[in-house]
Amino acid sequence: MKNSLFWLLLPALLILLAGCGSVLSKDALSGVNYEVEYSRLKASPDTYMGKTVILGGLILENQVTDDGSTLEILKYSLDKRDEPQDPDEEGGRFLARSSRLLDPSIYKAGKLVTLTGTLRAIEVRPLQKANYHYPVFEIGELHLWSEDRYQRAYPYYYDPFPYWYRYPYWHRYPYWW
Fold first, then answer.
1. Residue 10 belongs to a domain
2. H or E element in which residue 12 lies
3. Dihedral angle at the C-alpha atoms of 132, 52, 86, 155, nearest 10 degrees?
4. How far lies 23's CA from each of 17, 45, 47, 81, 115, in Å?
5. What confidence tens digit (pLDDT) does each residue in 66-98 have?
6. Residue 40: which domain range?
7. In total, how many domains does the chain have?
8. Separation of CA 42 from chain center
9. Residue 151 burial by Cβ neighbours in a 10 Å radius (0-12, 13-18, 19+)
10. pTM tops 0.85, yes or no
11. Which of 26, 79, 85, 143 is the most exposed place for a label (fewest CB within 10 A)?
């Protein structure tokens, strides 16, 4: 009896565990230093040079050169699946560099990404009328989130019953008075 119950519950357990993982590979996550907080990294970048962290956010710009691509990203907080959720006001912006070409038509402004990045430098660039200090990360692994992820997760719900048919409103139907 116990053996058959185990085999019945095993597929459900495996499906549950598969849905809770990160979108990044285990190889990419193995090099991540989870003890490094982004706020401390941004405050004193010299002490965290060469450390690898998980980052995510909204692509603001993609600059392509002969040396590769540089993404300017607005940092977002990440959920347990490492999916960008909300803008992180304290995080600000950062640059993510890759030696390979990241096609600007695919990695364009307005897309959400999650990546592992190794801190390599601090670069000062103008941001409107101020000089902004951007942490520069070398991209290890990059995941681009699709735009229709919410449409698949929450399909449109059609209610076949009008509002007056359900309990609190049934007495409002004019023929029942």
1. no
2. helix 2-18
3. 140
4. 13, 27, 28, 7, 9
5. 999 999 999 999 998 899 999 988 889 999 999
6. 22-145
7. 1
8. 19
9. exposed
10. no
11. 26
